[in-house]
Amino acid sequence: MPDRPIGVFDSGVGGLTVLKALKELLPSENLIYFGDTARVPYGTKSPRTIIRYSLENTKLLESFNVKMVVVACNTSSSYALEILRSEFRFPVIGVVRPGAKLAVHRTRSGRIGVIGTEATIRSGAYRKAIVSVNPFAEVFEKACPLFVPLIEEGWLDDPITEEIARRYLTPLLKEKIDTLVLGCTHYPLIKGVLKKVCGDGVELIDSAEAVAQEVSKVLPAKRESGVGAVRILVSDKTERFERIARMIMGEKISIEEVSVDKE
After folding, report:
1. Which reaction is recorded as catalysed by this protein (predicted)?
2. Which of 16, 45, 187, 192 lies at 20 to 30 Å from 244 by C-alpha?
């Protein structure tokens, strides 16, 4: 069992930030990533569709004999996590609770902002998770539906991205938040823009490292030696995905296109 891979999926390129964190913390583990690039974004889809996509993605990873699945998509984690846990026998880890716990740990004032896709914010998943850790925390949320398309387009440090970020974040900054949860695994890719808009008084919470720590705690059988293999699959292989993926992973990578079985 130790040699079996850890599976990771996201709607697109954003979940590679989680894959990279796993690779750095658990370098001996074999990893397999699936980016559902043919159906990105998930954040504008209905809960029913998000759940269906999440089940299909997890079944795909199951076919590679994974020992665990990390749902590196906040939208899927918000709507499908408990269903996935009931459907599959291996552990399934989401990204919402680790990020919420880290935000509560880091905030000084208890005033926490959360940005995410429309579906993630509508679900209230982060608010529930944060308040379950600290009932006295004040949570201010904002849906940012344009961020994922801009990031998938590769506009990571563009004046248009900065202007849109300013429009989205100004209401949260007026609430005097001191911590901002990046409630979508795409968002760390524009961390520079977000930091510029928020300033030094707001700490940005990227849940990737917290998720990797959680995986390390619950991993059923660790691979203790050697360098793990990394395999990256997508449902639609594009030059844009390859370019951003190379930037995130910091190395030349091979990307395979696969079909998601619909049962």
Report:
1. L-glutamate = D-glutamate
2. 45
The rounded distance, in Å, linking the Cα atoms of 86 and 96 is 18
| Residue 203, SS3 per DSSP | strand
Residues with Cβ within 8 Å of residue 53, at least 6 apart in sequence: 11, 36, 39, 42, 45, 76
Establish if 66 belongs to a structural domain.
yes
Q: Which of 118, 109, 116, 117 minimizes the C-alpha distance to 138?
A: 109
Tokens 């891979």 belong to residue: 5
pLDDT, one tens digit per residue, over 104-136 is 999 999 999 999 999 999 999 999 999 999 999
> Which CATH number covers residue 29?
3.40.50.1860
Q: Was 74 annotated as part of a binding site?
A: yes
Name 118's Cβ contacts closer than 8 Å, sequence gap at least 6.
43, 44, 143, 145
The response to whether 46 counts as a known ligand-binding position is no
CA 177 to chain centre: 22
Domain span holding position 248 = 6-94+210-257
Instruction: Supply the residues annotated as catalytic.
Output: 73, 184
Domain boundary among 169, 184, 207: 207
- Whether residue 42 is annotated as binding a ligand: the answer is yes
10 is in an annotated binding site: yes
Query: HSE (CB half, 13 Å, CA atoms) of 92?
Result: 22
CA-CA distance, 208 to 205, in Å (whole number)? 9
261 pLDDT band, cuts 50/70/90, is low
* Annotated binding-site residue? 75: yes
What three-state secondary structure class fits 7? Answer: strand
